[in-house]
Amino acid sequence: MRNILFDNKHLKEYGAYGSIVGLLYIASLWYFLYWSNYQTPHVLFIGSIFFMFLIMIYALKLTKRRSENYSVWMMIIAGQMAVAVGIVVSLIGSFILCSVYIPELTNSSGIDGSLRNAPGDFNVNNSGTLGLIFYTAVIENYGAAAFISAIISYAVKPDQTQDKTPVIFEEPAEPKYL
Q: How many domains in the chain?
């Protein structure tokens, strides 16, 4: 039996939605790094909200599919795969933008560098800025998007009584001995 989660059509879909949500987060990160002000970290959280809402749209799209007869577990797994692609894209983009906008990224010269108006001990060697960027790129994005994907899969999908356990979760049958 073939697994529909890993065919080319679905892999392209995970890549497309994951790339779009990752690029939206990168756009908010670019705005944050372009202004490089201590009073604008909320922009990163707005990027995580965009990340969450686009994953929600993808999960809603999955609930409307009748031809593939997605079960709730299959929808959750598909949502998690799109989230994983989005996090990888946002991490790669975050590293590239940090390399461009924070010149002392790999230099440990002790310059407090990139954020204007930051308290003195907050940003030693840019650790505060990098921590904020990469924590929101991984933990915030995963937490919000994975949660909304699971909630939408359970709350919106009609007629869950006909769902079957996906093949990946089925236990193998006991061999019959004669």
A: 1
